[in-house]
Amino acid sequence: MGKDLRSEISDLKSRAESISRQLRAWCDSLQNSDIRGQRYLTDKTKRSTKEAREREEFLEELRRMREGSRPGLGDGKDS
Fold first, then answer.
1. pLDDT of the residue at 63
2. How far from 64 is each of 56, 60, 67, 78, CA to CA, in Å?
3. What is the pLDDT of residues 15-59, one digit of tens each?
4. Structural domain of residue 23, as residue ranges?
5. What's the domain count of the chain?
């Protein structure tokens, strides 16, 4: 095996070990946090989350409709 290949393998091994340590620290951090994923949501929180998302989507659509109906914005209506 050539010296360049050994050096490259050694560098890759070092990088892999470093990444592994970073991932382990990240996992530990997540496990010790108060943040919980989807599987921890109750039916009530799932419903309220869905309702909030739908409300935001509705309000965004309403904003787009209002902007499109303003005179002078190319809606085809005379001002």
1. 94
2. 12, 6, 5, 19
3. 999 999 999 999 988 888 877 777 777 888 888 889 999 999 999
4. 3-32+41-68
5. 1
Residues 67, 56: Cα–Cα separation, whole Å: 16
Q: DSSP readout, the chain?
A: --HHHHHHHHHHHHHHHHHHHHHHHHHHHHHTSS---GGG--HHHHHHHHHHHHHHHHHHHHHHHHHHTSTTSSSS---
Q: Dig out the tokens for 47 from the structure.
A: 């419903």
User: Quick check: is 73 in a domain?
Assistant: no
Q: How confident is the model at residue 42, as a pLDDT?
A: 80
